[in-house]
Amino acid sequence: MQIDRRRFIVFSSGALALSPFARAFGQQPAAAGQPAAPPVTAFTDVRRNVGIFTGRGGTIGFLINKDAAIAIDTQYPDTAKICLDGLKQKAGRGLDLVINTHHHADHTGGNGVFKAETKKIVAHVKVPELMKMVAATATASAAPPVFPDATFDKTWGEQLGDEKATASYNGPGHTGGDAIIHFERAHVVHMGDLLFHERHPRVDRPAGASIANWIVILEKTGKDFPADTIFIAGHAKDGVAPTVDRKAVLHFRDYLSAALDLTRKEIARGQTKDAIAATASLPGFEGYQGGGPLTLKGVLESAYDELTAKTP
Q1: ∠ CA 210-248-62 to the nearest 5 degrees?
Q2: How many whole angstroms separate alpha carbon 296 and alpha carbon 7?
Q3: Which backbone phi and psi does 214 adopt, to 5 degrees?
Q4: pLDDT recorded at residue 140
Q5: Regarding the domain delimited by 11-257, which CATH topology (the fold level of the hierarchy) does it fall under?
Q6: Which residues contact 247 (CB under 8 A, 6 or more apart)?
Q7: 3-state secondary structure of 203
Q8: Cα gap 109→15, rounded to integer Å
Q9: pLDDT band for position 25 (50/70/90)?
Q10: For range 159-184, the mean pLDDT
Q11: Residue 288: which H helix or E strand, with range?
């Protein structure tokens, strides 16, 4: 599969930088008393006016053509500003819409930055509900979330110049409100955090996640789209592109299946949750990267709770 990786703009905290695959969880916080390093960001073309922006948070997708300008997800305020400035420079104007793939702050934290230059923000109907749930437990100093102002239940679609974008909800997966965005003519699909490429995922059970149905979603995704489809992952291993083919989608399906199968077998053997979660690596997936909140331990703990019907 050939992917055009020509970068048309690259910014770093307002200055030029050159790093095409800066990952959200790979940028380390500054030591105590030290100024934070500027986020490393990049725009990369994918296919037929669709591209990606990488920075600090989930991969942002975008479409810029002569009649339309949209973004998928918004990361955090600092990188959202860098992304928005770049998209406005490319489009020569503001955006027509933003789509949030789900509610997590590394995908919606920049909504406030985008809102002033965007006609509307679209998301699955559960996204505002889940954002409110998170906000209710946030510290008093946390900035209030900026909610989508248009929602859908099962499907959504809009003609965007010579491209059509559609969104679909297929039940709980990474959370209870994940959408898949399809650019129909470009054959590009933004998976949000339904796809982690060679990186341990977060399974957000309090937000309604289901590993079992997540596997079903990935299986369906592997069958529904043309063989030449390019898939955009929400997160990827450091130094690895978040743009992948169908084999990578099915490989992640196999990862989740292996995690659930291992946990099921260990439960049958009488192993405790802590013992299962202490598993050092998942056979066949030893190369998956962990770090921060994304660990095999977290996946196996969630699998245990799901299989034993523990309340999130």
Answers
A1: 85
A2: 33
A3: -60, -40
A4: 75
A5: Metallo-beta-lactamase; Chain A (3.60.15)
A6: none
A7: coil
A8: 22
A9: very low
A10: 98
A11: none
Structural contact between residues 265 and 276, judged by C-beta atoms closer than 8 angstroms: no
Question: Could you identify the residue written with the tokens 């969104």?
Answer: 167
pLDDT at residue number 37? 76
**How far is it, in rounded angstroms, from Cα 131 to Cα 261?**
32
DSSP 199: B
Q: Which residue has the tokens 């006016």?
A: 49
Give the closest residue to 64 by CA, choosing from 82, 42, 86.
86
- Burial grade of 286 (CB within 10 A; 0-12, 13-18, 19 or more): exposed
- What's the rounded Cα separation, in Å, for the pair 159 and 162? 7
- Specify burial of residue 32 (Cβ count, 10 A radius: 0-12, 13-18, 19+): exposed
Kindly tell me if the per-residue pLDDT of 139 is higher than 50: yes
Residue 300 corresponds to which tokens in the numbers above?
């196996």
8 A C-beta contact, residue 56 and residue 24? yes
Q: Where are the alpha helices (DSSP H) in the chain?
A: 77-91, 105-108, 111-115, 126-136, 211-224, 246-268, 273-277, 296-307
Residue-range domain boundaries for the chain:
11-257
